[in-house]
Amino acid sequence: MSLRVMIAKPGLDGHDRGAKVLARALRDAGMEVIYTGIRRTPSEIAEAAVEEDVDVLGLNCLSGAHMSLFPKVIEELKARGADDIIIIASGIIPEEDSEKLKALGIREVFGPGSSVKEIVDFIKSLDKSRNG
Amino acid sequence: MDESNNTSRSKREIAKLITQIENGAELTPPHSEATVVGVTGAPGSGKSTLISAMARALVDKGKKIGVIAVDPSSPISGGAVLGDRIRLNFTHENLFFRSIATRGMRSISKSAYTIAKVLGASGYDMIIIETVGGGQEDYEICAISDLSLLVLCPESGDSIQMLKSGIIELADAIVLNKSDMEGSEIFYTMLKNSFPEKHIFRTVALYSKGVDELTSFMLSWKSVEDHRKEAAIRSFLAMMLKEELFSGFLKENRDVFEENVRAVAKREKEIYEAIEDLMRAKHKL
Amino acid sequence: MGLEEELSEWNKSIKAKERKPLNTSGLEIKRLYTPLDLKEFDYLKSLGFPGKHPYTRGVYPTMYRTRPWTMRQYAGFGTAKETNERYKYLLSQGQTGLSVAFDLPTQVGIDSDDELALGEVGKVGVAIDSIEDMETLFDEIDLSKISTSMTINAPATVLLAMYITVGEKKGIDRKALNGTVQNDILKEYIARGTYIYPPVPSMRLTTDLITYCSTEVPKWHAISISGYHMREAGATAAQEIAFTLADGITYCEEVMKRGIGIDDFAPNLSFFFASHSNFFEEVAKFRAARRMWAEIVKNRFNAKEERSCALKFHTQTGGVTLTAQQPENNIVRVALQALAAVLGGTQSLHTNSFDEALALPSERSVNIALRTQQLIAYESGVCDTVDPLGGSYYIEWLTDSLEEKAWKYIDEIDRMGGMMKAVDNGYVQREIANSAYEYQLKVENKEHIIVGVNEFKNDEKVNMELLKVDEAVERAQVEKLKRLRDRRDKSRVEESLRTLEKKCESDENLMPYVLECVKSYATLGEICGAMKKVFGEYRPPEVF
User: Fold this and answer.
1) Distance between CA atoms of B112 and A110, rounded to whole angstroms?
2) How far is the alpha carbon of C419 from chain B, nearest alpha carbon, in Å?
3) Is C276 buried (19+), middle (13-18) or exposed (0-12) by CB count in 10 A?
4) Residue C536 CB coordination number (10 Å)
5) CATH for C75-150+154-222+457-544, among 3.40.50.150, 3.40.50.720, 3.20.20.240, 3.20.20.140?
6) pTM as predicted
7) What ipTM is given for this predicted complex?
8) What's the average model confidence in pLDDT over C176-204?
9) Which residue of B has its CA nearest to A21?
10) Which band of pLDDT confidence, cut at 50, 70 and 90, is reported for residue A132?
11) Which residues of A touch B96 (CB under 8 A)?
12) Interface partners of C (3+ CB pairs, < 8 Å)?
């Protein structure tokens, strides 16, 4: 059973080098990765996550809009009864914001300087706990 | 498993059901009257963009639409990047879009078929299946769909290859996408002359041109049973049978099979020798 | 014994172990370069003189001996009012050029109250919704005395129309306005992602703007053809030159299709490159780019005037090379990259601030970045002579080799039928994505060392004062927009938008109609929205 992961880019920033590299790395780790493409609204992301029935939703935002956008995604998922989807986040997210986001239910936040391997390993560990 | 018609299923419930199908749950495809449209075509012909434009037009016409987009799994890792959503312009309560991976081509046609039926039984009026494009699986899509569309684009070498393959004979209609490109007129005339009986549409999916006409055609389509359909079904059944036989074989002979794979990879054995050995194993010689 | 035999003897005598070279473009780097590596080298043909064809050594005869490059720092945040105050401060400190950073809603042509703008207003630049904001942005600034560079692409026509209108209101003739709009839409599809419409109508807007400027705003640089963002997205140095020049070729062809001669617009083209960490590779890259462009303009487009062939460029140090770990190290990285840009002969330079991997730059970090440039210009002595690295066996070999690699890409793109096709079928995006992935693998397995990231790490917690944009900015901007919508002459707005929409279906130059919309106080989102109705919206191909 392949783990299904969705990489989503809420907001307007068009830099998706990181998102694409991560998508490839997750594929190479044996996962099925759905990439939404750039410029998606929180409701579009939540709708897509539900339709795709993903296990993990990775949010990436580099423009500094994460504190407005990520909580909105969580809200939209709740409204669809899909708050069991594990959310992780990455981007230029300062330490203090990261604490707040975790308090809102985001499982892990990968700030600037996180390596792709770290993120892949983290998602793999989620898979193990899911199956174990 | 619950397989009855249920139009009140939430998207969440449908999505979970699809996951179970994908993961091998035994489920008899439910009955559904929804039209299943198979869309195939060469890479770069603009299939995904066209499907996004078609879905938009159909939803705007008040229809509930399901889309099943298939991308290849990596033969090495088993993982996949499913990117068809990138081209999708919108989400809507009357649109259900699901990306699936070929998962080693083992059961894609079967699960895509069952998923389409589940979507139909859940109240979706038309289900569009997008194939990976350009391979064997295109024959099968014609068998499991009520209407099959072949998407081509002018000037494309891959599209020319498609003309030579059997798929063009099996498809119910041809869509010449990117028809604003240079050389499009010549290509269109050539198609018209070579396939005078076929429905041929011209679209520019990026600008939603010609999509209205195409979707009206799709809505009014009545599936016909003819020799083309028979050929597609023959091919589909043959593939399914091969798969069943192969998985039966694997159940009893997995170790022998893997040994032979390794031996050929290490060049200890020629590939035809491996086949002979595997046949011997099958017949328990 | 000749040099060849001597060299071979010497090479054979070496037993020491050597580490793998760092070159990013996949070139085999030898342990030593000698005249044998420059067999084809002909001084006049390969280098010539600065200010003369093929411009390898620089576009001006005296280069920095006359005056150093323009130090141009990109700035903008929050509301137009806040940014205006920052600009006035910068100008009072003797800066003569402004470089406007717009927020993302502005860059993708939507208003601050659009659903998609949530959380983005004023974040990475200044928020501009209408001519009203533009007037505030340049309040008390004399547009006849400064040059203004605007990083704006898909909605460039609208922002330029706003700038022209602000000038008019101040009584300044558009012919006197000086500045640049980036207006490079191709690289938005390839790497930067702030596109709006599909390629064909976008290209029409780009050429509308260039042709309009060639007669109406003659001092304006109507495009800045950018490799920077492709490099940031993962391109190698060779790919950066190749794809940028291929974009340049496409723009030239499109403008010439309108019946404008190459010599009438080529001198006003400008380029924008990145400077990354592999020092010599970067220096060689700039030199190769100049020589190639001169060749393209002269032989492919048959330019008659020398100055049409000179590639003038702005450089920014590599944003992706900045690390969040041990951020002070970035000061050194930026200095080395800036030095490479200067030795490569840049016309203007933006140096990144050391805290930019963590947040928008603070005032202190911006200051250090600017001082870095001044230090190079006034203390290092690199300005003393033109192209000081010219003639180095290694640099000349590297320049030749990068050029050869880049031509191969350009040939491939030509074979596909040009850059529009190569972007449409995802070729360029795929090449870049592959380079990015390969680079990442090298970093992860330490083949490529990044100090403080995969080697020489310490666990020090980063403790720095970071700039944060107040969330109140968004609310204030949305309020302001609402007041404007209530106040303006609605029928004039609607009329101008209707006319623009109609003209989008024709072949006419859209600039005059965009100007009318701007003057009627139509908002950026409304103007781009009217064009969207005809042009449609773009979604990219899947490329990984």
Assistant:
1) 36
2) 15
3) buried
4) 21
5) 3.20.20.240
6) 0.88
7) 0.94
8) 95
9) B81
10) very low
11) 51
12) A, B
